[in-house]
């Protein structure tokens, strides 16, 4: 197994802006915020910090009705 050590990475784009969260009505903006949180936790590079499948399925973005 090959292990690659990565230096600290800085964000190059704001996921909230990419998802259009700034130009939406409050309720839709809240759901976009939840989606952003879920995606950030899912795409975490450090597997130890990454959200588990069970926690992802229990996330408010998945559980709450639109």
What can be said about this structure in brief?
It comes from Bracon brevicornis. The protein is mainly α and about 70 residues long.
What does this protein look like?
This protein is mostly helical and 66 residues long. It is built from 4 helices and no strands. The protein has helices at residues 15-18, 26-42, 53-57, 60-63. The model has no long low-confidence stretch (mean pLDDT 88). It comes from Bracon brevicornis. This is Protein kinase domain-containing protein.
Strand content: under 5%
Distance between the termini: 43 Å
The number of domains is 1
Mean pLDDT: 88
What kind of sheet is the major sheet?
none
Order of helices and strands: HHHH
Counted beta strands: 0
Main structural class: mainly alpha
Number of H/I helices: 4
Oligomer: single chain
Described by the principal axes of the CA atoms, the overall outline is flat
Percent in helix = 40-55%
Organism: Bracon brevicornis
InterPro entries: Kinase-like_dom_sf
Protein name: Protein kinase domain-containing protein
From the structure above, extract its key features:
Protein kinase domain-containing protein; mainly alpha; 4 helices; flat; 66 residues
